[in-house]
Amino acid sequence: MATNSDLEAKVDQLQDWLKTNWSRLCDDDKNRGWDALITLQKQDLADQLNQASLPDITGAVKAMNTAIDGIKQEAQKLATVAQVVGWIAEAASLIEKAITSVIPF
Amino acid sequence: MASIVMRTRIVSFAMAVLAWGCCSVPAGKFKALADSASQLGQADQQAYKQTIGVERYWLVIAQTSGDLKPDSFNLEAAFDPQNGEHPLGDKDLGARMEANGIVLTVITNYLSALASFASQDFQTNIDKNATKLGGSIKSFGSLSQPWAKEAAQSSGALATAIDALGHAYIEHERIAALSRTMTSAQGPLQQLANFVITSNSVVRSSLTQIETHYLGDANLLRPGAPGAQRLAFDAYIGQAIGQFSDAQKTLTGVDKAIANLPSAHQELAQSMCTPNADFDSLERLIGEAERLSKFYTSMK
Hints:
The complex is a heterodimer of chains A (105) and B (300).
Chain A: H1 4-20, H2 27-40, H3 45-49, H4 54-75, H5 81-100
Helix pairs in contact in A: 1-2, 1-4, 2-5, 4-5
Chain B: H1 2-21, H2 27-61, H3 75-79, H4 93-118, H5 122-138, H6 149-163, H7 171-221, H8 228-259, H9 261-271, H10 280-299
Helix pairs in contact in B: 1-7, 2-4, 2-7, 2-8, 2-9, 2-10, 4-5, 4-6, 4-7, 5-6, 6-7, 7-8, 7-9, 8-10, 9-10
């Protein structure tokens, strides 16, 4: 299982990419990117994610890894900006789903 | 036999009078300490309002795509959602500020009860202030968070100490009762001061995190070209950042002042039988509380 700091590093990487590449995004991508960014900025995300059910955690982490691979591909011109935004949005959506299914103490 | 008992009582009384004979109650300083605690309570309320203002700014910028709804700007729904959403920020932020408000009210009521007892016409106010103290402790009932339990217990200890003051009619009895009460309240008072500082530290760190995200988001939205649009945008963001800064300053000020409160209380307790006692902590507390009070008034 990923540690909190691993998850935090992944969340930060996705946020940083969105912020750094913001000016390259078209309006539609900005909309999707913005929604993803707001989710990624939510309180104690990594900590909450680690308390989700194992399938939810696995799904969210897999989506984050896909987005991070996408970032690397985009840097090598092997993927488009719109594709990366899509992968990040998918990861954010799975994170949101995972953390809202956590049963509060 | 009766005369021996009578003699023993007279000797005990004389010894007590001698022991407390050179002592006096600095009633004015007791009042000053209670007034400073009350000012801190007001400053804390101001910090609460400023924090809510900051959350509101954050909520505006954190709106996602899709239609706005009636509860889109509802702070409670955003920070403590009841169903199907993860909170935007620390859901305990409001509860922490509320708990601090209760603790500062308890401290103020405790010190006001002491100040009443220390004054010449104490009989009129002591019961009123003791009742107010009891009432303020009941407010802890609205907080179910585990971290609030210790503060509730320490507050209860202050009320017990005040109940033990009793009714003293002779000066030396009054000094002895004050001294006894303040000694037993010293530990709980220190714990309550620590509680306020810890809660404020949690709130400050959450505000810092929100501010970082807020500025990052604002930079993404900031109009690129200089002009009227960017001027209006910057003016709005400037107001928000000013609110963040005011909230941080108020919380830091409350921490700085309250850190001196337990030692000011101890100084006062020891001063009753110490000629030319120092009141460094009391003076620092009064100075900081007044500074905060002016800061608060200037922002009204």
